[in-house]
C-alpha cells in the first residue's frame, strides 16, 4: 500500500513524502477506534463531528506514517491529500484489529 503526501509553498509542490509500508502503534489505533461511532456513519452531521474530534490525531498519525514529516510541513499540505491517507490508515487499523487472533485459530 503506497501513500504519498505533498508539501506545498502556495500552489507549488516543494516536497513529497512517500510511504510504501507502515505500522501504527496500538495507541494510535485505540485513539482512532474510540472516536468512530459506527451507528452514525450514515449521518453527515455526525460524521462531521467525528472528523472534528479526530483533528488532534491527524498530525501524530501522519508522522507515524511518513518518516521525517514535521508539524510545520503538515501545515503546508492540502486537506484533500490528507483525507485519502487517513482513510487508508483507518482501513489498515481495522484490518489489523480484525486479524487479531487469526494466527491462533485452530490451536
Secondary structure elements and pairings:
Elements (H helix, E strand, L loop, with lengths): L2 E7 L2 E8 L6 H10 L8 H22 L5 H4 L4 H21 L8
Antiparallel strand pairs: 1-2
Helix pairs in contact: 1-2, 2-4
Q: Radius of gyration over alpha carbons?
A: 15 Å
Uncertain segments: none
Oligomeric state of the chains present here = single chain
The largest β sheet comes out as: 2 strands, antiparallel
Description of the molecule:
Strands 1-2 form a two-stranded antiparallel ribbon. Helices cover 53% and strands 14% of the residues. A hairpin with a 2-residue loop joins strand 1 (3-9) and strand 2. The mean pLDDT is 83. It starts with a strand and ends in an 8-residue tail after the last helix. The protein is an alpha+beta fold and 107 residues long. The protein is globular. The relative contact order is 0.19. It has helices at 26-35, 44-65, 71-74, 79-99; strands spanning 3-9, 12-19. The chain contains 4 helices and 2 strands; from the N terminus they run ββαααα.
Q: Which features does this protein show?
A:
107 residues; alpha+beta
Task: Produce a short descriptive summary.
The protein has 107 residues and is an alpha+beta fold. The chain has helices at residues 26-35, 44-65, 71-74, 79-99, and strands at residues 3-9, 12-19.
Amino acid at each position: 500500500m503506497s501513500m504519498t503526501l505533498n508539501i506545498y509553498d502556495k500552489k507549488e509542490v516543494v516536497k513529497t513524502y512517500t510511504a510504501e509500508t507502515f505500522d501504527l502503534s496500538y495507541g494510535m489505533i485505540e485513539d482512532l477506534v474510540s472516536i468512530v461511532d459506527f451507528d452514525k456513519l450514515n449521518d453527515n452531521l455526525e460524521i462531521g463531528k467525528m472528523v472534528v474530534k479526530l483533528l488532534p490525531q491527524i498530525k501524530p498519525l501522519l508522522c507515524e506514517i511518513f518518516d521525517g514529516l514535521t508539524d510545520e510541513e503538515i501545515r503546508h499540505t492540502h486537506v484533500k491529500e490528507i483525507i485519502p491517507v487517513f482513510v487508508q490508515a483507518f482501513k489498515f487499523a481495522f484490518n489489523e484489529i480484525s486479524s487479531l487472533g487469526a494466527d491462533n485459530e485452530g490451536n
